[in-house]
Amino acid sequence: MNDQSSNVGSNTPSRRDFLKQSAVVAGSVAGLASSARAFAGGSDVIRVGLIGCGGRGTGAAAQALRADKGVQLVAMGDAFADRLSSSHSTLKAQKDLADRVQVDNDHRFVGIDAYKSVIEASDVVLLTTPPHFRPAQLKAAIEAGKHVFCEKPVAVDGPGVRSVIETAKLAAEKNLTIVSGLCWRYHHGKRAAFERIHGGEIGDITSMRCSYLTGGLWTHPRQPSWSDFEFQLRNWLYYTYLSGDHITEQHIHSLDKMGWAMKDQTPIRASGTGGRQTRLDPIYGHIYDHFAVEYEYENGVRAFSRCRQQDGCQNDVTDHIYGTKGFMDVMGHKQYDYAGNLVWRFKGNGGNMYQIEHDEMFAALRAGKTINNGDYMAKSTLMAVMGRMAAYTGKTITWQQALNSKEDLTPASYDFGPMDMPKVPMPGITPFA
User: Fold this and answer.
1) How far apart are the first and last CA of the chain?
2) All domains of the chain, ordered by start, with CATH?
3) What is the rounded CA–CA span in Å between residue 61 and residue 59?
């Protein structure tokens, strides 16, 4: 019915053999892979590990547990012990999940490298750390033979996106699942709307417009014991090297719908503007608070995007796809002709997209099938990075320039010590790298 179905593989090994490929043999109990252990009712236990124990990670863990009664959360990892403890307590407090949160003290890993131990202990890994860490963690999980739920975005720069593209190819070769946190692609109403778009119901696409205008998000005031790096990591939203800026971290959802409409054909160039107008306090790091970017496709289609995180302003989170016959209000699941007549409206239940993506992932694993969202999650991430580059530099940036960019935002060190505050990008001054 939609692009999602094309990502489901046709290989159908037995369920036990399929899960065994991601099992870890360790210690004196090495002889029996946990994915082959019997669970109540005769189903196999699927061991899940959580990497990144913030709010999104805690939610993803709960959704994984609710997706399949044979799932157990067996390992957790985070840079900070307090975040891990809070997440664990939250999950244990949920009565329908508590008995399957089986994370003993030996499987609670703290530190930047905690992901390595979580991967080793798990069959399925949930990657919900700040986006900067995603390429390395995804690569490690796939190389280790583990299935992955991977939050968006999947990188913050060109080298990171290139790494994810290669890792997604490796996952396909190894018959491993990668489910993306670009959750609108799992919403029933959006799927129905895009099925109509792809079926030609609005005619040939001529232009697109998307908005993600919201207020501000959370901050964590600095504590006396925190180093520069700890302060930045705890407030990762506001540092481009950690989040990719909010055009990448948040507005990617809107841009992903533009890519979805174009059947993941990539734009050829982008130009844009942006700045830092209201969020001037140092707690907001160095990122922008507004962007407006125009994307051009090879067939002449133009996508006009804008995003804003400013308090006290009118919010607008909408997407519209315009065609030769009419247009689709994507968020409203409504199709109109140009006389203003309502042509179609989705009347079903859209469902909880956060839960659906986990339901479909674990159902595929139980059926011995795979889902690989790697291609579109990498393309949508680069689309956002490309727009950021255009706004930061004030230049028109091509897709190939963005993809082949040498801009590597990895810090010199992950030591919890002094770290310089990055400068606010200045169009016309900040160079393209």
Assistant:
1) 41
2) 3-184+354-373 (3.40.50.720), 187-347+380-403 (3.30.360.10)
3) 5
